[in-house]
Structures are given as C-alpha cells and as structure tokens.
Amino acid sequence: MGSKRDIRVLHVDDDPELASVTADMLEREENRLGVETVTSASDGLARLSAAEFDCIVSDYDMPDQNGLEFLRAVRDEYPDLPFILYTGKGSEAVAGDAISAGVTDYLQKSIGSDQYAVLANRIRNAVERRDAERERARQLEAIETAREGISILDADGQYIYANQQFADLHGYDPEELIGKHWELVYPEEDVPEVREEILPAVEQAGYWHGETVSPERTGVRYPWITRWRQPNAANSSVQYGTSPTGKNVNGSFNRKQPDWRRCLKTHRI
Questions:
Q1: What are the pLDDT digits (tens) for 84-118?
Q2: CATH 3.40.50.2300 fits 7-141, yes or no
Q3: Apex CA 104: angle with CA 79 and CA 126, to 5°?
Q4: Which residue from 26, 56, 184, 193 puts its CA 20 to 30 A from 74's CA?
C-alpha cells in the first residue's frame, strides 16, 4: 500500500501478510507516515530508483538478499537515506554488522502492538535527524561560500567555527580562532561594553544596534556599525557588522581593504 503523506516509508519484508499489517499499524500510529511495501530487496532497490522515499524499514532474514546486503546496496547509492533494520532475528553480531554497514537504527520485532508505536517514533526521529543534518550542511555550504565574514561561538563564547572571510578580516587563519574567546577580536577596553550592555540587550530585546571597534591582529582598529539579533536557537546571538568607510580608527588605510560594506560577523553564544 502507499500514501502521499509527509514521510514516505519503503517497507521491505518477504512476508506479505506481516508487511501489510506493519504498514497499516504504522500509518495508524503516525498519520504523517505513508508506507509502501515490497517483498524483496531487489524490488526495494527497484522502487528506490523509481520513486523518492524518506526512510527504509527492512527485515533481516530474507531469501536471495538479506537485510544487511540490502543495506550495503542502499548505502552505495543513497548514503544518507535513513535505514532501520526491523528484524525478528536479533543478535549482537547482526546489530554490530548493521552498525558497521551504516544502519540508522535497529529494532527487534516483538509481540503486541506497542512495537509499532516504537517503530513509528524511530522512523520519525530518523527522518527529522536527516533533515536537520541536510539543513546544517546547506547552511555550512552557504557560510563557506559567503563573501561575508561569519563565525560561530559555543555557549562559553569560544569560536567553534570561522570562515575564511572572518579570519581574514582580523588577520588570522580560521584554525587559529577555534577554541579562542570572542574577546580576541575586540579591543580590551570595549569588552566590558559587550558584556554589560550588548549581550544583556540582545537577551532582553532580541536585538542590538550600535558601533563597536574590532582590532586587526596587526593592532590596527576598525570601526564597525554592528547589529546583534537573537535567533531561534537558545543561548545564541548573531552579530552583523559593517564599516562604511573601510578606514581604521585613525582615519588611514594601512593596506588594500576588503569590501567592508558586505562584511558580516556572526556570533552564536
């Protein structure tokens, strides 16, 4: 059976009756699931080449090609497609081999209807994790290719990421910034203002706008018109900064300047 629901599941089991029951129960447990069933790994691969699915649920003990062999074949073509091994033949050896082959989750079949609620939840979680990973990858790619300088801080205010543009703006290599505190790129006399005025304002109002000064590694200081905002993630904030003149605070140019009007500094703390 199949359905045009939010989460499309391909269920592979050589027992047609059990496969049909499992599909029905999963769709009852979670109305976002649309489950299509096939009875062999080869049919499963054929369906994957003909249609898009968000998750695979496969039995282990099947003729011709077992669940692990099916998993390996899927991983060759669809490396990030969630794959749940749902099997009545459970053992530590099978589980270990499945993990090595790149299984997303492993669940042993049991008696009773509770297992379907557990399986539906595993499917939903696996798809949501995959979607979140894809979104993070998309965002990271955008950051890496951005003309703006972007950095990310952890909860302790230390850099966990800085793109090349951000590092160049301050005279560092990206690797040199990792593990360093955000204070590194602010003049010492401006740190109290950031701590006592900017960060509390962002936490309270979700937004701050004003001017700060960021030193370059050479000691030259550049003015920044900055905007901080609070994104959806907890304990994080984003800082946007531009310098309309491209001059240091002494009003002179010390070398060829980047396009300061497109400079973006992003801090998540």
A1: 999 877 677 788 888 889 999 999 888 888 999 99
A2: yes
A3: 100
A4: 26
Select from 63, 75, 47 the least CA-distant residue to 14: 63
Cα–Cα dist 123/101, whole Å: 18
Number of Cβ within 10 Å of residue 162's Cβ equals 28
pLDDT of residue 130: 93
Q: Which class in CATH covers the domain with range 146-262?
A: alpha beta
Query: Is a pLDDT exceeding 60 seen at residue 253?
Result: no
- The pTM assigned to this predicted structure is 0.62
Answer yes or no: are the C-beta atoms of 2 and 36 closer than 8 Å. Answer: yes
Are 30 and 124 in contact, with CB atoms under 8 Å apart? yes
Amino acid identity of residue 17, one-letter, is E
Show me where the domains of the chain are located: 7-141, 146-262
pLDDT digits (tens, 9 = 90+) for 174-221: 999 999 998 888 888 888 988 898 878 877 887 777 777 766 666 666
